[in-house]
Design a protein that fits this description.
Elements (H helix, E strand, L loop, with lengths): L4 H8 L4 E7 L6 H6 L6 E6 L6 H7 L3 E4 L5 H10 L5 E6 L2 E2 L2 H17 L4 E4 L1 E5 L2 E3 L9 E6 L3 E3 L8 E3 L3 E3 L4 E3 L5 H21 L6 H18 L6 H36 L5
Parallel strand pairs: 1-2, 1-4, 2-3, 6-12, 7-13
Antiparallel strand pairs: 4-9, 5-13, 6-9, 7-8, 10-11
Helix pairs in contact: 1-5, 6-8, 7-8
């Protein structure tokens, strides 16, 4: 049976736990995230220059706010982790929240880890609310993410996109899901996919990747098949179809952005030498 809010707060108040959240213009989400971790000993918000009410809301809810210019996702999370008061860190995105069932499970797991010294990190499933429903297929769930760790043995990778928490040592998996309120609309998802496709292209270029035309042609439909059929996105109804199409388009954009300089060079040559066409 889930702990009552009062019992949960009393339990967690005895535990040294810091929650870190990185933000930029998250006034619609930050309050929900902070209120969901009211059991934590400390909430640290690292803001990279919000122009809305994010900072004021966070401070009003008791969070410690630190300003830091944007260095990238993983680097910003490592900065937040270094500036926390406690060694055990729970990292949240601003559009996530910890439901009571997960909080109770987290409390018990962390208490045991503090007593035994193991494990050094915990993963948890994440369930996303999108288009008026909880998405349960298509690769969006269970979507296990390592978010709770002892920072003495853990740090974030620092690619341009899709950072991950790397823990040196044993990790365990919590059963209850983290709740994710990702996109307010299809438009929000498209704009996010555009940004991440650009970052993915930059990361691919940085690593020396040189995708050919076959990847541009085959990877997007392959992603649709994977998301909609193999990972059963069709069970999420029309929302699952929209997710699969957007996933395929995001892959298409990543490779198109990467190939764009070569395409431009080829096009310029055709323009300058029309007789060669």
């Amino acid at each position: 049976m889930p702990l009552s809010s009062l019992t949960l707060m009393e339990t967690m108040a005895q535990l040294p736990l810091s929650v870190t959240i990185i933000t930029l213009n998250e006034e619609e989400n930050i309050g929900r995230a902070i209120r969901s971790v009211s059991f934590a000993d400390e909430v640290v918000v690292v803001d990279s220059g919000s122009q809305d009410q994010t900072v004021e809301i966070a401070r009003g809810l008791g969070a410690r706010v630190i300003h830091n210019p944007w260095p990238g996702y993983g680097a910003q999370k490592n900065f937040a982790q270094r500036n926390a008061r406690n060694d055990w860190i729970l990292n949240l995105d601003a559009d996530e929240e910890v439901p009571p069932e997960l909080a109770a499970e987290l409390a018990a797991a962390l208490r045991d880890a503090l007593q035994t010294g193991r494990p050094r990190g915990f993963s948890m499933p994440r369930k996303t609310f999108y288009l008026g429903r909880w998405i349960r297929h298509g690769g969006w769930y269970p979507n296990l993410l390592c978010r709770l760790s002892d920072r003495r043995f853990a740090s974030w990778s620092e690619p341009r996109v899709h950072e991950s928490l790397v823990v040196q040592g044993e990790t365990a998996v919590l059963r209850n899901p983290l709740h994710h309120h990702s996109f307010g609309s299809i438009r929000d998802q498209v704009l996010t996919n555009l940004r991440f496709a650009q970052l993915g292209s930059e990361e691919l270029t940085r690593r020396g990747g040189r995708p050919g035309i076959l990847r541009l042609l085959l990877k997007p439909p392959g992603k649709f098949v994977e998301t909609y059929f193999l990972k059963r996105g069709f069970l999420d109804g029309l929302a699952g179809f929209i997710i699969a199409v957007n996933a395929a388009y995001s892959v298409f954009l990543k490779y198109a952005f990467t190939l764009e300089p070569a395409i431009r060079v080829s096009g310029r040559a055709d323009y300058e030498n029309p007789d060669h066409r």
